[in-house]
Structure formats: C-alpha cells, structure tokens
Amino acid sequence: MTDNVSLVSGVAKRYASALLDSAEETGVTADVERDLAAFEALLDESADLVRLVKSPAFSAEEQLAALSAVLAKAKIAGLAANFVKLAARNRRLFVLPDMIKAFRALLADKRGEATAEVTSAAPLSDDQVAALKQALSASSGKSVNISAKVDPALIGGLVVKIGSRMIDTSLRTKLNSLKFAMKEVG
C-alpha cells in the first residue's frame, strides 16, 4: 500500500512541477491557480464528477469528452484546461486531486509560504491565531497561514502540523502517555 501511495504522490508531484514550470514560463501562474481552485470546487460539489475522475470504468475518450464539456461550462480554459485534458488522455485522472494539491504546495513553497493545520479543543480567538501565526512564522522562516479545526476530544492544548512536522501538546496525548507510563510501573 505504501508503494502505491508513494507512486501516486510521485506522479502527482511530477505533473504539478511540470504544470508550474509551464505556467511560470508563460506568465499565467495566477490564472492556473484560480482555474485549478475552481475545478477543485467542482469536485467538492459533484459526486458524479468525482466518479468520472476516479473510475477506471470510463474510457479515456469518454472522460475527455465529459471533462471538456464541464471545463467549457465552468469557463476553465488555457493551461489549466489543457492540463486536466492531458491527465485524462494519459489515464491519470484518478491522481488529479493530488496533482492540484501538489501544485498548490509547490507554489506556496516558491512563495515562501506554509500552511499550518491547527487542531484545538475549543475555537481559537483572533489574538491566539495571530500569536500562533507569528510564532510559527518565526520558527519556520516562512509566512504561515493557519487552517484551524476544533476537536473537543483533545480536551485541551493544540496539535499543530506544518509540513512534515507535528507538534502535539494536547491534554489527550499527555493523559495517554501518563496512562502508558503507569501501566509499565504497575
């Protein structure tokens, strides 16, 4: 399973990197970013479109024809549309959502940006988000955007994921560690 995941992420990253290079060469990076976000929103809204993208039951020609109609109706054209059609022709549509994420990650990295996924037991105030953003920016050397989620199961504290690093200061984890330590003693 891990080999499949790394294969998919490798394919996604290669396609995303090629798309970013093409977009930069032609000066349409912002247009491609906007169009891919619009296509991703369509994927989020339509289970049928997700089925079309992920299902191997459709031929490349059927996928290409359907996607051409969807792209035209959504007014997605240019490099982004050609990219989606290329993925369809090459039978790589099932990796398209990962390609879009990889494109966004490569673009953010080029801009010196990072996104931190922050999970807390209760909603964070604006002051707390600002302080956390400042601390993470200082430690990572990048401009950090916060994606906040609430999970009451944490009981207290935070879980912060930025890139491949994870910082878990949640009360749930501390209690689990204490429980584990007590089992070893007793």
TrEMBL record:
Annotated organism of origin: Roseibium suaedae
Keyword DNA-binding appears in the UniProt entry: no
Stored InterPro entries: ATP_synth_OSCP/delta_N_sf (IPR026015), ATPase_OSCP/d_CS (IPR020781), ATPase_OSCP/dsu (IPR000711)
Location (main, coarse): membrane
Gene Ontology, cellular component aspect: plasma membrane; proton-transporting ATP synthase complex
PROSITE patterns hit by this protein: ATPASE_DELTA (PS00389)
Cellular compartment(s): Cell membrane; Membrane
Any Pfam family the entry gives: OSCP
Entries under PANTHER family matching the protein: ATP SYNTHASE DELTA CHAIN
Membrane topology: Peripheral membrane protein
Superkingdom of the source species: Bacteria
Signal sequence extent: none
UniProt keyword Transmembrane, yes or no: no
Ranges in coiled-coil conformation: none
Protein name as catalogued: ATP synthase subunit delta
HAMAP family (alphabetical): ATP_synth_delta_bact
GO molecular function list: proton-transporting ATP synthase activity, rotational mechanism
Function: F(1)F(0) ATP synthase produces ATP from ADP in the presence of a proton or sodium gradient. F-type ATPases consist of two structural domains, F(1) containing the extramembraneous catalytic core and F(0) containing the membrane proton channel, linked together by a central stalk and a peripheral stalk. During catalysis, ATP synthesis in the catalytic domain of F(1) is coupled via a rotary mechanism of the central stalk subunits to proton translocation. This protein is part of the stalk that links CF(0) to CF(1). It either transmits conformational changes from CF(0) to CF(1) or is implicated in proton conduction.
Primary gene name: atpH
